Design the sequence.
């Protein structure tokens, strides 16, 4: 039989645990990758479920940083590379050569965060310290490279809520972040699968290829006239043993390019298990190559676009 004193203690303890959970001091989603130099990551805010984001995917120095839902179609402003600096890190977004920066080099409570031309200064240098539920990302701007001071903080829980630095002793999940390591291959597959079913201009399969690479990796349009030209430049093999992420080429004797005079052909991305994702018939489609007599008949090899091996 539980004594009244013990019962009161248990009730008090349970109430305390519930209160802590409601205040966000205990995190139920603690899944995170570890930071490594030159690794590339989505950086997710624990309180909001949204991601560190360069506004508008801009490359310009001085662009504001906020939080936003994960954008698989245009992720370059949400993927950050960790660059080692004096034992700590600079955080460079894929969309720019600039790095995460405390605005006006002014490390004080509530100061805004943006991206700025890389200088390696302390206000561009961050420690990533493990805490319950993830990491606190601390500005080293007004400290002699220690773990105290101001931390990266989300000011709200909606898209475009601002990010600033605040006193790191505050006990809430708006100052805790998790890391999701990404690879170029995963970025490509996420992007392609998120776009299946969307409309896309018919006859622009080659534009779909270079536009995807531009949105993901910043590669400019090479200016080739048709899929046949891409094939002549980038085809590596005619084998049916196709690596995931490679471009696949098809001949088409019924369509002639009015610029080069060759069969226009067709091009798509191979995504595994016999499937490609490509622009055809006015939509972005996911098609099994070998279950189609048409695509099987005209298959003409694969290659790495822009020689980028994934």
Sequence:
């Amino acid at each position: 039989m539980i004594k009244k004193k013990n019962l009161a203690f248990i009730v008090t303890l349970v109430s305390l645990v519930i209160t802590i959970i409601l205040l966000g001091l205990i995190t139920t989603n603690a899944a995170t990758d570890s930071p490594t130099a030159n690794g590339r990551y989505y950086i997710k805010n624990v309180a909001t479920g949204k991601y560190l984001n360069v506004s508008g995917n801009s490359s310009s120095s001085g662009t504001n940083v906020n939080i936003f839902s994960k954008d698989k179609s245009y992720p370059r402003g949400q993927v950050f590379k960790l660059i080692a600096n004096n034992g700590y890190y600079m955080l460079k977004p894929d969309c720019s050569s600039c790095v995460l920066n405390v605005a006006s080099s002014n490390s004080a409570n509530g100061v805004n965060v943006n991206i700025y031309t890389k200088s390696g200064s302390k206000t561009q240098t961050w420690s990533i310290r493990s805490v319950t539920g993830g990491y606190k990302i601390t500005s080293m701007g007004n400290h002699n490279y220690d773990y105290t001071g101001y931390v990266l903080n989300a000011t709200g829980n909606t898209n475009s809520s601002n990010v600033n630095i605040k006193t790191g002793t505050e006990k809430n999940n708006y100052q805790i972040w998790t890391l999701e390591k990404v690879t170029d291959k995963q970025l490509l597959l996420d992007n392609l699968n998120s776009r299946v079913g969307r409309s896309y201009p018919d006859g622009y399969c080659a534009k779909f290829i270079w536009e995807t690479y531009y949105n993901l990796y910043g590669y400019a349009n090479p200016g080739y006239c048709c899929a046949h030209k891409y094939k002549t430049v980038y085809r590596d093999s005619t084998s049916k043993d196709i690596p995931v992420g490679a471009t696949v080429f098809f001949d088409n004797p019924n369509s002639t390019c009015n610029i080069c005079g060759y069969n226009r052909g067709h091009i798509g991305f191979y995504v595994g298990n016999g499937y490609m994702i490509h622009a055809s018939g006015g939509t972005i489609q996911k098609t099994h190559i070998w279950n189609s007599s048409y695509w099987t008949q005209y298959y003409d090899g694969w290659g790495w676009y822009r020689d980028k091996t994934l």
Summary: The longest strand covers residues 79-85. The helical segments are 4-23, 184-195, 205-217, 227-234, 293-298.
